[in-house]
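pipeline/complex-builder :: batch 7 item 3
reading input block
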Amino acid sequence: DQQVKQNSPSLSVQEGRISILNCDYTNSMFDYFLWYKKYPAEGPTFLISISSIKDKNEDGRFTVFLNKSAKHLSLHIVPSQPGDSAVYFCAASQPGNTPLVFGKGTRLSVIA
Amino acid sequence: NAGVTQTPKFRVLKTGQSMTLLCAQDMNHEYMYWYRQDPGMGLRLIHYSVGEGTTAKGEVPDGYNVSRLKKQNFLLGLESAAPSQTSVYFCASRQGTNQPQHFGDGTRLSIL
């Protein structure tokens, strides 16, 4: 049973517009959430994270929103750039030393 | 600033052969992880370690063994390679809970 779900396998956005990537989770024990970006032939790169005590975290063009009641988080990229084209993974973890649980990823294509 | 280094980057094996993938991190991280990535499946955890001398099974451990004899190294072994183990393997490490994982660039393994 998937605990972290990314229901959109792919997303296309025009350069300069907003990209919104979504992620849903089922485990109410998750308290730390992350987004990773992955280019072909490279490992995933950490992008941004949020603790469950917050509902928003911002870093430059990237903002992550957390809605605990809906068990939903989203990543907003504004403005989108062609270099943002990659696969984005959502991940979550519980308190303690349990590993991160990853979603299956969303492929973002930013079209110039 | 090497971070997480995986050796080798590519390998082709015949069915039944054995091999060991090496992961080395220079960040003094406690936790280390091995994942495999297959099309449409996201990142699936094979085995992980929460400290030197410890290992634990992840989501897909069958056919693999691991060892963490030194804090900086995490080895993934395939005892008798099977075509189903053709995949891209990623190693990751992190310092502790509520910290991001840092990934290597992967090992692409093909088993004929």
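note: Chain A is about 0% helix and 55% strand.
queue -> next item
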